[in-house]
Amino acid sequence: MPFSPRFGDHFYAREDGRSETAHVFLGYNGLPARWAHASSFVIGELGFGTGLNLFETWRQWINVRRDSQQLTFVSFEAYPMRAGDIRLAISRWPELMPLCEAFLADWPDAPEGVVRIRLDPQTTVEIRIGPALSGVEAWDSAADAWYLDGFAPARNPDMWSADLMAAVAAHTAAGGTFATYTAAGWVRRNLAAAGFSVAKVAGHGRKREMLAGTLASGA
Q1: CA triple 126-149-49, angle to 5 deg
Q2: Residue 10 contacts by C-beta under 8 Å, 6 or more apart in sequence?
Q3: How far apart are CA 133 and CA 14, in angstroms?
Q4: Residue 150 DSSP label
Q5: Helix (H, G, I), strand (E, B) or coil at 113
Q6: What is the pLDDT along the chain (219 residues), one digit of tens a residue?
Q7: Which of 57, 188, 200, 215 is the least buried, fewest Cβ under 10 Å from its Cβ?
Q8: 115 vs 110, 133, 146, CA distance in Å?
């Protein structure tokens, strides 16, 4: 179970991080159902961590995609993990290991800048190394769905700041969505101020509530 001494927090739910990914990020962004109507789809993520969200998303994408559809997964990560640590964390889920190994085959020993990996002919991942705010502001595209997965807001407030939530909104496509495991009031207010309609919805495991929403029209 990976733990960050820097932020004093675990990377995902201790009960089952993979089911948390499916419930929080895929489920409340309406995936995979939304893929059925898209020739291309972009997912933005704050906090790459172990890559668990990528691998579970890629697994589900492979199961439902049609020929010629394209998925781009763009993650903003200040402290990239080493290959051995990623492999150890994901080894808990044997069904994800072939995807993990395919990713790690092109993962640098010392990632920097923008690491772009063509995972398969229909799937691309970009990990943009550095502070999230400057990374999102410099990004020249927009996400159809956001996975807001920084460490707990109380331990890593910069990943939930008003400025960063505004940057996320500015890089969200029309009708785009977000989901996050937290229900912290100040995070909800920052998202609303940025232009998202925000709802409290059923959380995962021991977390009674979480936040999800859609970019408001005209935001």
Answers
A1: 55
A2: 1, 2, 3, 4
A3: 28
A4: P
A5: coil
A6: 554 455 455 445 455 778 999 999 999 999 999 999 999 999 999 999 999 999 999 999 999 999 999 999 999 999 999 999 999 999 999 999 999 999 999 999 999 999 999 999 999 999 999 999 999 999 999 999 999 997 688 878 899 999 999 999 999 999 999 999 999 999 999 999 999 999 999 988 777 899 999 998 755
A7: 200
A8: 10, 18, 19
Tokens of 198: 């925000």
Strands 172-180 and 209-215: antiparallel
DSSP per-residue codes, 46-85 = E--TTSHHHHHHHHHHHHH--TT-EEEEEEEESSPPPHHH
Residues 152 and 175: their CA atoms lie apart, in Å, by 27
pTM of this prediction exceeds 0.85:
yes
Helix axes 52-64, 97-104, angle to 10 degrees: 110
CB of 85 within 8 A of CB of 109?
no
Q: How far apart are alpha carbons 218 and 195 in whole angstroms?
A: 8
The amino acid at residue 48 is F
The residue type of 32 is P
Residue count (the chain): 219
Compute φ and ψ for 15, nearest 5 degrees. -70, -50
